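Researcher: We're teaching a course module on how sequence relates to structure. For the next exercise, students receive a sequence and then see the predicted structure as C-alpha cells, so they can try to spot secondary structure elements on their own. Here is the exercise chain.
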Amino acid sequence: MSAVSEPTSDFYDAIECAPREELEALQLTLLRATVARVLERVPAGAARLREGGVTGAEDIGSLADLRSVPFTTKADLREHYPFGLLAVPREELVRVHASSGTGGKPTVVGYTRHDLEDVWAAVMARAMHAAGVRPGMVVHNAYGYGLFTGGLGFHQGAERLGATVVPVSAGMTARQVLLLGDLGGQALCCTPS
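Model: And here is the predicted structure for the students to work with:
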C-alpha cells in the first residue's frame, strides 16, 4: 500500500484521508481475514458462510463479494447464547457485556484485551474526534456503566483520545447539571432520549 499523508487536526488517523483505492484494498484484506477467522473458529458462522457459497477467504475476490456473506441476525445471537459465536476460547475474554434482554435472552458480547484496547477504544476515539472532541477537553460521560456497552466505550474512547473523562454515569439530573458547570464539561456523552 502507498504511504498516506499525516493526519491533521481534521482527522484522527491517516487512513481517514487515504485514497479510495487504498481504503478498498485495506477493506478487502480485512474482510478476507474475517471470513477466514469465522471459517476456522466459529462452527455456526462457518456453516452459514458455506450455505452462502463461501468456503474460503479466496472466495472473496472483491468488495462486491460481500453480497455473498450472510448476515448475523439477532435470532442467531439468541440461538447461540451465551458464548456459541465466539471466535476465541471463553478464557481469553477479559470482559462481557450484554443487552437488557427485553426481547428474551440478553445479547451477550465477549471482548478480548485486543478488542477493547486496540479496536473498541480506537473506534470510539475516532467517532468522538469526528464529533469535535479533542485532547485535553473535558468529557462528561452520562452513559450508564454496567452490562450496557455505552458508558465504558465512551470512557475508553475519550481517554484514548487524550480527553479528561468525568465518569458520572446516568441519573441524578441535578448532580449532572452541577458537575457539568463546576468541572467545565465541553462534551456530553449520554442517551439522546
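Model: If you want an answer key for the exercise: The chain is about 40% helix and 10% strand. The chain has two domains: 11-71, 115-189.
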